[in-house]
Write a structure and sequence with these properties.
By secondary structure, the protein is mostly helical. The protein has one domain. The chain is built from 15 helices and no strands. Helix 5 runs antiparallel to helix 6 and helix 11 packs antiparallel against helix 12. The chain is globular, with a radius of gyration of 21 Å.
Length: about 300
Amino acid sequence: MANFRSQLRSVFLAGIKRGWRSFVWICLIIIPVSLLVTLLQWTGWLDKLSFLFNPLMCLLNLPSQAALPIISGMLINIYVAIAAMTAMPFTIGQMTLIAVFTLICHNLIAEGIIQHKSGINVVKITLIRIAAAILTVLIVSLFFGDTSQSIAVPAPLTVASPLLTVVKDWAMNLIALLLRILGIIMAVMIMLDFSESLGWTEHSVRIFRPLMRILGLSEQTATLWVTSAAFGLMYGGAITIDKARKGVLSKEELERLHISIGINHSMIEDPALFLALGLNPFWLWVPKLVMAIIAVQVYRIVHYLKNKLLH
């Protein structure tokens, strides 16, 4: 009994240490990137960049006004995209297309760096996510008719907040986010260590084996996929880099995992945020999951053909 308690204590402490290292690593990415983008938003540069996305809006069958929530989501996060959406009188169809794009393609800078450090080139995964978002919206737009009609944008109701206020709000929101990240990472790391020490990991792999086959992923990535799909890339990336350092997964396995979770992650929180806007839950959950499966299978085919040609 004493030996068992000692083992549990050792596992718990090991999980804490791993969780803290991962948390510090996440902080070094999130803090500077989020501050930089917040300052860009405060200066109004994000608004000025919106016109560059007008050709993309035409391609996506959206009005030019949709550029602001889309670029805000791409560079910052879903919360900012939703705030921009609610400030304009978009139709349900237009909001659905913006939501589908944003759910796949958001927070590209911070999440791209996290994925880069945990197994896939940042340029590759960013381009894949953008291409997946465009293709998914093009397909979904076929079910909504003409969504390109222009909307009347209301005049700004408030002046820009003072810089000190903006930085204070950023700091408070960031602290809340980091505390949530710390709690989840610690819980997941401790749980993983306990699972490995008690031999539960292999059992969980067998449970998720059919799902991993459908997703086109390695069985060994089951825990990593579930963590990212449920909580998001911030949390899953920290766990993934820990596995990558140990050499548990091959480069191909890591890239397939990153393509899947890059397109389809945070399946609980992110889609739920858009439900308050009255959007159909089907479009919030199903398209990005299907696109993740397609993207991974395309990657596997390309990888197979590439190896065939080289050998």
